Amino acid sequence: MLLQAIDIYKSYPSGKMRIDILKGLNLEVHQGEILVIVGASGVGKSTLLNLLGTLDKADSGEIRFESRNLSQLNGKRLTKFRNETLGFIFQFHHLLPEFSALENVLLPALIGRRKGREVIKSAELLLEEVGLTQRKHHKPGQLSCGEAQRVAIVRALINNPVLILADEPTGNLDGQTAREVFSLLQKLTKERNQTLVMVTHNEELAKRGDRILRLADGKARKTASNSK
Ligand SMILES: Nc1ncnc2c1ncn2[C@@H]1O[C@H](COP(=O)(O)OP(=O)(O)OP(=O)(O)O)[C@@H](O)[C@H]1O
Ligand SMILES: [Mg+2]
Fold this sequence. Notes:
Blueprint: E1 3-14, E2 17-29, E3 34-38, H1 45-52, E4 60-65, E5 68-69, H2 75-85, E6 86-89, H3 101-111, H4 117-129, H5 145-157, E7 163-167, H6 175-191, E8 195-199, H7 203-207, E9 211-216, E10 219-222
Parallel strand pairs: 3-8, 3-9, 6-7, 7-8
Antiparallel strand pairs: 1-2, 1-4, 4-5, 9-10
């Protein structure tokens, strides 16, 4: 098992009250799988992904990565863990507008102090794999939505993370482009034996994952449409 969430509680302030979002949530993520998380809007999917990705902290409960308790990581060690181990993809690409596609891809590598020709080479190879060699010097404003999202995928993969967390990575795309972008993500992560946790509202794509969990009432449950 790669990642485990144990008895997670998370609430947010709402005026003088607090709203409970996650209420004793448990889940396990296995090495190499594509785990899809579905659920109604506002149920806490992004909240959960942020907790799994150490971008936010739970009120109580544990997130364990390879049996290490992540809540005990802080400061530089946490930043290093995130940079080396995790890849993030969001609904909107969040590319930096002033930088080219290639430069955007290189940023996580530079943050991780990887430099030089070797890392540029791997960025170029990845961009080639997603069919963007001809677009590598384009700025985000000069890319289509699907192209920008492919750049965002490559950026998430540049440090060869063990785990990729994707929050509606195709939510901003039309049906055909969404299928293409998901297929690329699936191919790249499977080839590298990486693990993907993906939130989606797209039922068709959800079924193409290895396993589906539905978030409801603050907990994660297997779904009936779980094919495996
Ligand atoms: N920082 C915050 N402060 C207060 N409430 C928040 C905060 N972040 C999220 N919430 C609330 O928590 C609930 C869960 O939000 P979350 O973004 O996790 O939902 P979601 O399942 O990802 O929804 P969607 O499918 O629309 O993206 C929502 O009701 C939201 O309003
Ligand atoms: Mg969300």
